[in-house]
Amino acid sequence: MSFNDSNLSICKLLTSTEICENPQFIVGGASRTDICQGDLGDCWLLAAIACLTLNEKLLYRVVPQDQSYSEGYGGIFHFQFWRYGDWVDVVIDDRIPTFNNQLVFTKSAERNEFWSALLEKAYAKLHGSYEALKGGNTTEAMEDFTGGVTEFYEMKEAPKELYKIMKKALERGSMMGCSIDVMVVSIVTWSGVCVSPLCKQSQHKASKVRLVRLRNPWGQVEWNGPWSDNSKEWVSLSKGEKDQLQHQSAEDGEFWMSFEDFKKNYTKIEICNLTPDALEDDKIHKWTVSVNEGRWVRGCSAGGCRNYPDTFWTNPQFRLCLLEEDDDSEDNEVACSFVVSLMQKNRRKERKLGANLFTIGFAIYEVSMHGNKQHMQKDFFLFNSSKARCKSYINLREVTQRFRLSPGEYVIIPSTYEPHQEGEFILRDLNTEGFSLECCRSMIALVDMDGTGRLSLQEFRHLWNKIKQWQGIFRHYSSDQAGIINSYEMRNAINDAGFRLNNQLYDIITMRYANEGMNIDFDSFISCLVRLEAMFRAFQAFDQDGTIRLSVLEVSC
């Protein structure tokens, strides 16, 4: 029976207790075997749920654990989804479509387990109906489960730094999936494979080999080429190297392969960059995310793409300030990495009303950091070309792309391809974590000589040069470029910055700026040096003979 079959009209909505005896919400923990596709064409959703089972913290954010068919059972369950910038709680009853007492849609291999079927029902309610779930993209569901921003790469068009992008993404707790479009020798096509959190370089026969660990969430099928579980390549590695790579020979759906084979055998990779509200581990290098809501209004702000110069400038405009240079010791280019995501709202839910996805995209223009913040006018776009733009306008729910641009201020212009098309959207940009508000205020106070609370171009350049100098010192002492320095290294770092302190002051600095692990992050490091710079400068202003005497008013300043 297919979803559109007339037999569907005779389906019965039965509660879990009517379907079987002793129903359970989750049996023995959630796993991929709990997700068996039914007669609804939503394999894209089920692939996302399967990947979600590999991360318990994320899973139980979507599927709260405080639910069962015994204690406190009232016939209802609730699930949480990310919805355009907010987390929403969706409450459903436990009546599920059945035919001949069998579940019609998603079911578990265990007949009395219902969490996956109920999750599918809640997701259908979020979008208005089961029918709305027919056809989709796995990345769409992953974002609704995590609030993340997803980017994808076609392997044949992947950037040369893809391995570095993957490695950095895993350091930030991102989730990844890869897929194959056609059958390939020695490997079986499946809907999705998750990239496990390990990208390593191994020393093999006097040369470095880049490796990727993958996991098939659907079963036991594995890669059997070079670097597979029992391949000859592992013989050349020591036990210590094998332990470091967590190598084990087992038909568990998890396997290693070289990055080169990975690129040859897979068609596409999707990276779901998780935002801070989805990450709880302080050790993870998190993105910072800015969320902007907007709408295109016909006759006012629905200007279409750059091909329509008379109206393009009327589109909504959003400012982006890039100051945090990439922390990459192997790259000498002064540039900032960031990801821009443009998502149109509610189009799947309104599809039954005839609403189709618009063809959308965006462009990025550089503007003066010290100019006014007003809406850029038509002439600006006639005489200035974009610094970056999305690869193409496309009729998907979301268009996402990664960029690297020089530090500065930019304006992002989201638009539909054609003008006069009305709709709502959210625009998100992710970039590496910037300075805290306290640190920013301290930096401005350090160089703001005229006390206006604003920086002139000369003052900004002076501050920027200081930050660059201190960043170089921080990188030198940062352990494995992990974005932290050990508190024991702080003495040497401060000395390199030109400050000579006594032991008591070093103790105070450690107590003030080190975390529980006795480590100091970049924000705290800069805050410390800014305060030291300000104190030394104040002392020198009053110093006549190596000692100073201050009034109460001067101390308060």
TrEMBL record:
Question: Where's the Calpain catalytic domain?
Answer: 18-275
One GO MF annotation is: calcium-dependent cysteine-type endopeptidase activity
- InterPro entries reported in the protein's UniProt record: C2_III (IPR033883), Calpain_cysteine_protease (IPR022684), Calpain_domain_III (IPR022682), Calpain_III (IPR022683), Calpain_III_sf (IPR036213), CAPN3/13-like_C_EFh (IPR054069), EF-hand-dom_pair (IPR011992), EF_Hand_1_Ca_BS (IPR018247)
Catalytic activity, reaction form: Broad endopeptidase activity
Lineage top rank: taxon: Eukaryota
Q: Where is the active site?
A: C43, N216
- Please verify whether the record's keywords include Protease: yes
Tell me its EC number(s), please.
Answer: 3.4.22.54
The similarity comment for this entry is:
Belongs to the peptidase C2 family.
Q: What does the function comment of this entry state?
A: Calcium-regulated non-lysosomal thiol-protease.
The name on file for this protein is Calpain-3
User: Which source organism does the UniProt entry give?
Assistant: Oncorhynchus mykiss
